Amino acid sequence: MKKRILSGMRPTGKLHLGHLAGALDNWVRLQDEYECFFMVADWHALMSEYADPKNLKDSIFDNVVDWLACGLDPEKSTIFIQSHVKEHLELDFILSVITPLGWLERCPTYKEQLREITNRDLSTYGFLGYPVLQAADILLYKANAVPVGEDQLPHLELTREIARKFNHLYKKNIFPEPEALLTKVRRLNGLDGRKMSKSYNNFIALSEGPEAVRKKVQTMFTDPQKIKLSDDGHPEQCNLFNYYNLFFPDKAKEVKQLCSKAERGCTACKKELAEILIGFLAPIQDKRSRYLKNKDDIFDILDAGAKKASSMAAKSIAEVKTLIGLI
Ligand code: TRP
User: pLDDT, tens digit, for every residue of 99-134?
Assistant: First the structure.
């Protein structure tokens, strides 16, 4: 029997190379080894986008198309939208009644987001419960592991604590405590060297056309100590070089040598990188446009995913309600 994993992404905009390097690539690889559930976390997105939710619907669809284009395979994995499976909110509520406020108030991601995100009001009842809903997502399918980046570890720890408390309170081990699957997440920095992110507007989207890629790559920060062509470069400190390592490892060694000896300037490096990325994105974009010609196929995939997820979720909820004594 394969172990089960569940993971999710919030649909808050276009997917970019950071999502691919940090998560999607891993998801695609895990498909053969695990029984996989991949979910668009639209309720989680609503928690931060509630004041201006008009783009949610488009983002949800657009992200699923990118998932498929990058190689998620609906024959192997269950792909679905969180809000289509009503049991997520049902378990969320049940878990919320046993979760102490202090656990949520102390959660480092919560404190950080309240501090850092100033362009919207996150001091809501719903947002405090973000990790409870995430625990419900995971426990509903009794997932054994959750592929996530390091930033999500506090949420996974809370999930385990909530599972433990539930099992203890109702004297039955119905929820396994899920592990984090920290498959080596390759951090990809954005054009300006900070973490690639929509909110920094420093990203290259998976759907970016060739001209846009060329323009964006031209603006990339490189080694700050290499100002003139004749300055020796320091590839280890160059954000651009990191992209060579990730997307064109065969060429990276040569680039490193030439750059260190001032035999190659940043402009040449950028020109070449842009073409490499365009070539890398082309098959993804081809697949994307093929899917977009048959939108009904995508809705079918999501319907089938929701059905499969729902049947498992309904069993868990029945088990939970029986245990609590509600049915
Ligand atoms: N909080 C996750 C993120 O922002 C998204 C998410 C929601 C998730 N539910 C999940 C991830 C369940 C893993 C498992 O990336």
Answer: 999 999 999 999 999 998 899 999 999 999 999 999
Query: What number is the average pLDDT over the span 169-183?
Result: 95
Pick the CATH number of 4-189+294-324 from 1.10.287.3510, 2.40.170.20, 3.40.50.10490, 3.40.50.620: 3.40.50.620
Q: Give the CATH architecture of domain 210-288.
A: Orthogonal Bundle (1.10)
Ligand 1 binding pocket includes 277 (Cβ within 6 Å)? no
What integer is the mean pLDDT of 43-67?
Answer: 97
The partner residues of 5 in beta bridges, in order of sequence, read 36, 145
Ligand 1 atom, smallest distance to 41 CA: 7
Distance CA 110, CA 129 (A): 9
The verdict on the CB of residue 208 being under 6 Å from ligand 1 is no
Structure confidence by residue, pLDDT tens digits, 68-102 = 999 999 999 999 999 999 999 999 999 999 999 99
Nearest CA to ligand 1 atom 13: 7
State the distance from the centre of ligand 1 to the C-alpha of 237, rounded, in angstroms.
Answer: 31
Is the Cβ atom of 144 under 6 angstroms away from ligand 1? no
Instruction: Please identify, by atom number, the ligand 1 atom nearest to the C-alpha of residue 44.
Output: 7
Ligand 1 in reach of 207 Cβ (< 6 A): no
Domain coordinates of the chain in residue numbers? 4-189+294-324, 210-288
Considering the entire predicted model, what is its pTM? 0.94
For residue 55, report the distance from its CA to the centre of ligand 1, in Å: 19
Does any ligand 1 atom lie closer than 6 A to the CB of residue 40? no
**With contact defined as beta carbons under 8 Å apart, do 277 and 204 qualify?**
yes
**What digits encode the pLDDT tens for the residues 306-318?**
999 999 999 999 9
